[in-house]
């Protein structure tokens, strides 16, 4: 398979942002909108209109909705992997707005509807590899991050994209405990952010993203350890310098900026050579971890010439 | 209590037995699907985590026995120590076997590499290895045969407990609260023993012959 290039959109095809962000149009659009906003607030099982993108989906059977929504790390709700599902109920992901800032021509605060409206949502079945050596297969619903970033016309100074999670200790009990420095922050190099595999997800199994999985808007970078895929995003900032990232701040010798899945570079305390695929039950042996989580063909070129032992 | 001095004493052993067996029974019930709960999405890690956690708690509980019996001046409490210790060993034994069989599936190469390269596994394995002779020599026959050497041998429980807490501590990513609680408890229990050893002279030796 050839490395897919990010689509080049001619300037003439790009709708001026003023048109996207026309307030009245948005309000009208919401009536029949992409996101069933009202329904999402009422229940977390609102269906999302989407198409299935086979080009970027793997053939492995996805994990059950139960596994994906009851076993994950989202320290904002607690450090146990059952905490997000258990304690995520008080979180209110609607209404939501995202601040776009930094080195771009278009910046400001935009509602989630503003951000999603011009795009068609698609399903992508991705592997997810946690730095703790377990993995899942998740059917995300979302859209390429590149499609969204381009609308804000990043300038030539934009070398990185920094993301920030919402800070709401009253709704997120884990944020009342300083296990990490809150709010959670993450970042990608511009070419990583623009890569067609990198998506912003708003759903799971065809439905609105449950609180515990990063509602209403999260990043998914399938060739990196799960902690790079920041959840409940409230800020996207284009930066010239490499932005700080939460786990790197917490333990710089253990978690690097890149955090690419790499079976040849162990975590200082445990091996990354093998992983446990969730859902296999008690008698499922560990399986080998693949370089770049199996996405090497598509992304290895991004890191040509880099020493991945040092730039881990 | 004052009216019926023997009651607590008579009930303590069966109650403690049930209390110690409950977490294991609950875990087994979950493992075999006898409860609605199950073991969750990652049953092997759940088994290992819960077994290790209870093993460590019981090991620390075992180390509480002597200070309790001494400060409360109730020598009969000492009679609970072996049961607690053997329960701790049972949990840690199943914890170890879960790792060996379910987690590693007897992959001796991987196990060997982990034992050498992963300090948390090295210390955890060492802690378990130190406890094996203690479990074996826990019988009355071995106590008699070893005589004063039995007490010296069983001081291995101290390094085992320290390594056990370290084993837990070194696996944590960011939330050190639970291992910190165990570390503080263990430090307190060891400090009590150090202080007692320093104070120990024939005139201050308590009626409770303990160690």
Q: Which two chains have the most extensive interface, and how many residues on each?
A: A-B, 31 and 27 residues
Question: Which structural class should the secondary elements of chain A be placed in?
Answer: alpha+beta
Task: Please trace the helix and strand order of chain A, writing H or E for each element.
Answer: HHHEHHEEHEEHEEHEEEEHEEH
The unreliable regions of chain A are 16-44
Q: Can you characterise this structure?
A:
The complex is a heterodimer of chains A (312) and B (211). Chain A is of the alpha+beta class and 312 residues long. Chain A is built from ten helices and 13 strands. In chain A, a hairpin with a 4-residue loop joins strand 4 and strand 5. In chain A, 45% of the residues are buried. Chain B is mostly helical. In chain B, 73% of the residues lie in helices and 0% in strands. Chain B contains nine helices and no strands. Chain B has helices spanning 7-31, 43-71, 81-103, 108-117, 119-136, 140-146, 148-153, 157-169, 177-199. In chain B, helix 1 runs antiparallel to helix 2 (43-71) and helix 3 crosses helix 5. The longest helix of chain B is centred in the N-terminal third of the chain and has 29 residues, at 43-71. The radius of gyration of chain B is 19 Å and the shape is globular. Chain B starts with 6 loop residues before the first helix and ends in a 12-residue tail after the last helix. The model of chain B has no long low-confidence stretch (mean pLDDT 92). The interface between A and B is medium-sized, with 31 and 27 residues.
Keywords:
heterodimer; A: 312 residues; alpha+beta; Sulfite Oxidase, Chain A, domain 2; eight-stranded mixed sheet; five-stranded mixed sheet; 10 helices; 18% helix; 21% strand; B: 211 residues; mainly alpha; 0% strand; globular
Spell out the blueprint of helices and strands.
The complex is a heterodimer of chains A (312) and B (211).
Chain A: H1 17-20, H2 23-31, H3 37-42, E1 51-52, H4 65-70, H5 83-87, E2 97-102, E3 108-111, H6 112-116, E4 122-129, E5 134-144, H7 145-151, E6 160-165, E7 185-189, H8 190-193, E8 199-204, E9 207-208, E10 218-220, E11 233-239, H9 246-250, E12 274-277, E13 287-288, H10 296-299
Parallel strand pairs in A: 1-4, 2-11, 5-12
Antiparallel strand pairs in A: 2-3, 4-5, 5-8, 6-7, 6-11, 8-9, 8-10, 12-13
Chain B: H1 7-31, H2 43-71, H3 81-103, H4 108-117, H5 119-136, H6 140-146, H7 148-153, H8 157-169, H9 177-199
